[in-house]
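Predict structure. Input: Dyp-type peroxidase family, 443 residues.
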Amino acid sequence: MSDDTQVKLELDDIQRGVLSPRPTPYAATYLLFRVDDRHHGRELMRRVSAVVTSAADTTSPLGETWVSVALTYHGLRALGVPQESLETFAWEFRQGMAARATALGDVGDSAPEHWESPLGMPDVHVVLVALAPDNARLQAAIDRARPAYHALPGVTAIWRQDCHALPTETEPFGYRDGISHPAVEGSGIAGSNTLEAPLKAGEFVLGYPDELGGVQNTQPEVLGRNGSYAAFRKLHQRVGAFRRYLRDNATDPADEELLAAKIMGRWRSGAPLALSPDRDDPGLDADPYRNSFLYRQDDPAGFLTPGGSHIRRGNPRDAAVAGVPRLHRMIRRGTVYGPPLPDGVLEDDGADRGLMFAFIGAHLGRQFEFVQSEWMNDGVFFGAGDAADPIVGSGDGPADFTIPRRPLRRRLLSLPRFVVTRGGEYCFLPSLSALRWLGDLTD
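Output follows.
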């Protein structure tokens, strides 16, 4: 069991976007930049180091509002970081997400050749993210950040994605999101599951011991310490197809909701099947213990929460599975983009809607890539062969989903692919001191 007194995180040097759960409701903007002139790129780093919010700044005049800055491998090269330093970064980061497509299951419609330009391309160098509780404060954060990249002709904005909370405060499929958040030792931020001991800081931030006692870092140390890796994904959701599948495979509206809950592992309100197996319980939303549950003792066979459900795959908690779940925990952040599909509509209308996802950790390989390849795109870890996740699982063809039930299990056949990857990238979130170091680079 981790002891929160064993580590003291240098919160004033860590970007707030690494550790703080996003506000609810929220508004967000992703901005991508290409660096054509390394001197202007370095000046951008100097400027943003004064704009980025630190994890120690929880009493900002803007409230739950912050700006984060990340760089791709190509971005670090564009700034002129020496090759010997670049080679000390994680090899998955150096390859980039597009090069890892097959391992991640980004095939068929999700393959990089179908991604939205310039996502996954070498032109993506800098990612700036602004997050706030509403549009007014978001605009204030963007206005505050604009001077950092304004009037730098060697830095070009090449892509923007605006995100927002839907009026229902759910993601496009209709589920409440942003419920689960791990406790990070030394962060001072409580986790959402009181039954889960805080994880070692080195699982999420470079320069600190992780669960195995190792310390991840780069050379020079100032470049990596207090930084984190992030996997950004733009995920398009086929909402009409999802609704139509539920209708076509349910006996009545109540059964539709049960199927939706079994597929996700939670009811639409966010109430988990583990705590409310028979009906949705929106009242659990106000319960501080709504995410405090385990699987091994209370539901080993998945009669309450199917082993193949989305949330049980993403975080098996204490279940006996391939891999120690604590070694594969990540911080997940999702923000909605695009207009909602009107209630009752069963055909997708051609609008682009879905989630911008960020997965944050210190180990891209055994965190994001392991979960994506072994838990989301395969079912061997809980005895289900090659069955993929019913929500985000990969594959070109239809998949099946099993709901354990007595006396006979229930099988959902030929689930189409409801989520399509529209692009993504592996990034590095430098510390504030690393941003200044990058700004001071010389040829």
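The chain has a mean pLDDT of 93.
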